[in-house]
User: Fold this.
Amino acid sequence: MSDLAIRTDQQLQVPAAGQPGTAALAQWAQAADAAYRLAETLCSTQFAPAAYKGKPQEATAAILAGAEVGLSPLASLRAFDNIQGTPAPKALTLRAIAQGLGHEVRIDESTPVIAVVSGRRKGDADWQTSTWTIERAQQMGLTSKTQWKQQPAAMLVARATAEVCRWIASDAIMGMPYTAEEIRDQGVTAAPGRPAPRIVSAADFLPAEAEPAAIGSAAEPLDPQDGEPDAPLTAAEILDEITDAATQERLDEIKAVCLDHGIRDPQVTTAWRTRSEQLAAA
Assistant:
């Protein structure tokens, strides 16, 4: 039996609501570990979508996100796009989740200038309708983007579909507030000369094979000069480096050092995420 066949036998048991917090957390950690080991195998095969090949951490996040809504690991990789390391559901994914639970979603009209999508919750008599026109997209500055120029009808349907699914099945898609199409639109709308906002996820700091170091453990210097290494940096000093970081590139350098040396103290990851958000909003 192949290694792939063995690993796909693992069950990803996502904690059910209502369990004690510590028990649910322990089960989630077990599921995350199983998902990561499975992702390592899948990402080295032809089964993995191109966006996840060689990226087991991002694939792990997608597998866990899919497991929470009942998708298999391979289905999860197809259902979520990998955007800056964050798994984002496609509009089609939200529709599939809603319909899988018995809710109804239908496309009433679709042209390059208008999309009308209706939906109703299982057991409800009234339909909720979302109408997206090309004028509405223009007002939001979307139509200048490549995907809108190439596939305006598909993009209008995606926007209307996501809106309807949030209205009728918000409980089913909780934690997935934006679709891949919407996130791409947001990323491209960054002001000229500025990088698109970075989306931070748990995949950024998933454990690697090395044993994590404690808070007081040392890492190699971030900026060795003239070939002479400086004194190792402690995690406390790395916190100062994160606070002083002026660009996302600098933050990524700091993160690389932390990952290489197993420094994943909650104070460090929280500070890194906070500073990243500050830079994106600046």
In short: Strands lie at 80-83, 86-89, 104-110, 114-120, 128-133, 218-219, 233-234. DSSP finds twelve helices and seven strands in the chain. The chain has three domains: 3-83, 93-178, 207-281.
